[in-house]
Amino acid sequence: MYFCTKYSSMNEKIAILEKYNLWDSKSFDFGFKRNEYTDKIIEYTGNRLVKVLVGQRRTGKSYILRQIAKELIDRGVKAENTLLINREFSDFDFLSSYNDLNSIVLEYRKEMGVEGKIYIFIDEIQMIDEWEKAVNSFSQDYSQEYEVFITGSNSKMLSGELATLLSGRYISFEIFPFSYKEFLGVTNGVVGREFYMQYLNGGGLPELFMLGSEEIKRNYVSAVKDTVLLRDIIQRYSIREPKILEDIFIFLVNNASNLISVSKINNFFKSQGRSVSYDLIYNYIGYIEDTFIIHKCDRYDIKGRDIISGNSKYYVNDLAYKNYLYSGFGYGAGYMFENLVYLELERNGFDVWVGVMRNKEVDFVAKKDDRLIYLQCAYMLIDKTTIDREYAPLKSINDNYEKVVMSLDDFSLPINDGIKHIRGWELREFING
């Protein structure tokens, strides 16, 4: 109770800060510990680089911020030297501009009597107008040392003025829903096909694992989808055709892992007797991508080593949208498996493309630093015809980079013309081995 006695004269805004911060040894829900992110981000502490956590809403960015703050405190940082602000909470509606943010930080320093470095954590910072001016000021202030961590749910937050102001003085981390490894941790599962299929047929949104019935989970996933479309797109861009926006999202989810073009979506609307312009579809797809709920994967000419314009593939950020909202549409497990492989490659820092070699397609060309991998995904290698078909595109590539066929079979095949076979649940170990 010492804290409350000492700061009984705090004004209302400071009292709000006290409610949500780790001061006075309060206990909070820190959620499932996501070491894959916290360990990596902690490695980058101890400098003025702004740490930017980006990703779709409800992927756990807020929990990760709290986990990082708690880890710093456990390592000796004074609790009162950490400042957590979640702009998504209505209690923080008074923070509408960068001036408001500057003012509350100064007021916090004065009331708390903080000495030394201050670690500032701001969640959903894009809700503060011209926030980049405050972040730049904190990161460059030579009279008071700050280390800033921010999150946002729109990829555009790293474009424009922020990139100009910080001139490379930031590092970004994309936060995804739970990986298969994290899924095993939160469910106490065992590595293998059984739990991989549960993961494939469920989803990785963290809050799903705190919910009970399938109906509650379905309602939750629907609410997440509606929030992303409404708050991050419709309100942000003053969308006049929200039904078209949602229908494009549904089309992308139900055609994930297939080659898609704007013209194909335009023809889909025409077949329904609806007139939608090419430019409108193009813009709406871009808005959806910006929220991280859908990822675009361009085609790559393996022989020419160049990106091919035109058709692309799209992958959903979490299969929960497919499994809980649009499960009645035809969408095979093989396509869902391919979606999971794409996410795991991206999650582990690979640049990913769809490979094109003459008249053959390779599911993924994945590159990280000097490592390049060609990957082909097959749901099940049920017979010799299937095996020959899945191995053929990789055999047509005449270079010495790694080549892998992936499947969800219980058995593992020997190396075939230098091509390895791995099961889906072995991917993480393979790419990090």
Question: Would you kindly provide a written description of the structure presented here, covering whatever features stand out?
Answer:
This protein has 433 residues and is of the alpha/beta class. The termini are far apart. The chain has helices spanning 2-6, 12-20, 35-43, 61-74, 98-112, 131-140, 161-166, 180-187, 193-200, 214-237, 242-254, 262-271, 278-290, 320-325, 333-347, 384-395, 427-432, and strands spanning 50-54, 82-86, 118-123, 146-152, 170-174, 259-260, 294-301, 306-316, 351-357, 360-368, 371-377, 402-407, 420-423. The chain has an eight-stranded mixed beta sheet, sandwiched between helices. The longest helix has 24 residues, at 214-237. The protein contains 17 helices and 13 strands. The radius of gyration is 24 Å and the shape is globular. The chain has two domains: 2-174, P-loop containing nucleotide triphosphate hydrolases (Rossmann fold), CATH 3.40.50.300; 180-432, no CATH class. The model is unreliable at 1-9 (pLDDT under 50). The protein is 42% helix and 19% strand.
Quick overview:
The chain contains 17 helices and 13 strands. The chain is of the alpha/beta class.
* Average pLDDT reading: 93
Shape: globular
Q: How would you name the oligomeric state of the polypeptide chains in this document?
A: single chain
Which spans have pLDDT < 50 for at least 5 consecutive residues? 1-9
What number of structural domains do the residues give?
2
The percentage of residues in β strands lies in 15-25%
SSE string, helices as H and strands as E: HHHEHEHEHEHEHHHHEHHEEHHEEEHEEH
Main-sheet strand order equals 6-8-7-9-10-11-12-13
Over the alpha carbons, how many angstroms does the gyration radius reach?
A: 24 Å
Number of distinct helices: 17
The tally of strands reads: 13
Query: Separation of termini?
Result: 50 Å
